[in-house]
Amino acid sequence: MLLSGKRLLITGVLTHGSIAWYSAKVAQEQGAEIVLTGFGRGIRLTERSARRLPDPPDVLELDINDPAHMEDLVKELGNRWGSLDGALHAIAFAPEDALGGNFLTTPSESAALAFTTSAFSYKTLAVGLLPLMQAAGGGALVTLDFDNSTQAWPAYDWMGVCKAALASVTRYLARDLGPHNVRVNAVSAGPLSTVAAKGIAGFSRFQEVWDRRAPLSWDSSDPTPVANMICVMLSDFAAKVTGEVVHVDAGFHALATSDQTAE
Questions:
Q1: pTM over 0.90, yes/no
Q2: Strand order in the sheet with 59-61
Q3: What is the rounded CA–CA span in Å between residue 101 and residue 78?
Q4: Which residues contact 260 (CB under 8 A, 6 or more apart)?
């Protein structure tokens, strides 16, 4: 199996419809031992979702913006496993006033919170987990991106800025963690009807655009293709891949227009 013997941390599982939950499911099916994280009032939802996995894993608390939480998580994983082979960073948040067409009126503190939680947190997780991956002889980190490096999207606003920053964070982490044999990559998914996505005003327009332009069909209700690629990137099959943003979007990113007719 692809992840046989791997010990993985999966963050960001809230409901059983999330990309992180599907990634956890595929990881277990491919032989990995996993631990999930959740925090605050949402941790009960994470625990409920964990029970729907093939082998219900433990859920540890992690508020990525609280240094004490990160320290406690690393200590717990160290006591439990002694090392760690990889992790999925599926953490993002932006206040309401940073989304939905509020770009020009968003206050700096809301933009800063979005950046700290959605982009800088990848560095926080990577640095915190590094000693555990060093103990394993190396490891793999994967984050969830949405391609915003060259274009602006309706309603996505400061989260779009944060996702563009996240791609850059991925490259810099790849540079600095490569000497430790730690790979750092991102998977850029097409639009999926997760709880987080539904909270963005105008999200339904994304699916309409994909239906017109993507060369392959795209099902926004099925995170499985994205989860499959995440697990590939966490596996030894991607042993020499780092600093990449891998698109799982039915080819949408490769086409400049929805008109596919040849002259």
A1: yes
A2: 59-61, 33-38, 7-10, 86-89, 139-145, 182-189, 245-248
A3: 44
A4: 215
Residues annotated as part of the active site: 156, 163
142-199 residue pLDDT tens: 999 987 777 888 888 999 999 999 999 999 999 999 999 999 999 999 888 765 655 5
User: Taken in order 134, 135, 138, 143, is the CA torsion positive or negative?
Assistant: negative
Extract the tokens encoding 120: 């800088």
Cβ(118)–Cβ(159) below 8 Å: yes
Quickly count helices (H) and strands (E) in the chain: 9, 7
CA proximity to 111, closest of 126, 125, 93 = 93
Measured distance CA(98)–CA(101) in Å, rounded: 8
- What token pair was written down for 51? 């029970």
Is residue 170 a contact partner of residue 184, using CB atoms and an 8 Å limit?
A: yes
Paired with 9 in beta bridges are 35, 87
Question: What's the token pair of residue 90?
Answer: 């599926």
3-state secondary structure at position 158: helix
**pLDDT score of 149:** 76
Pairing of strands 139-145, 86-89: parallel
Please choose, from the candidates 114, 33, 43, the residue with its C-alpha nearest in 3D space to the C-alpha of residue 77: 33
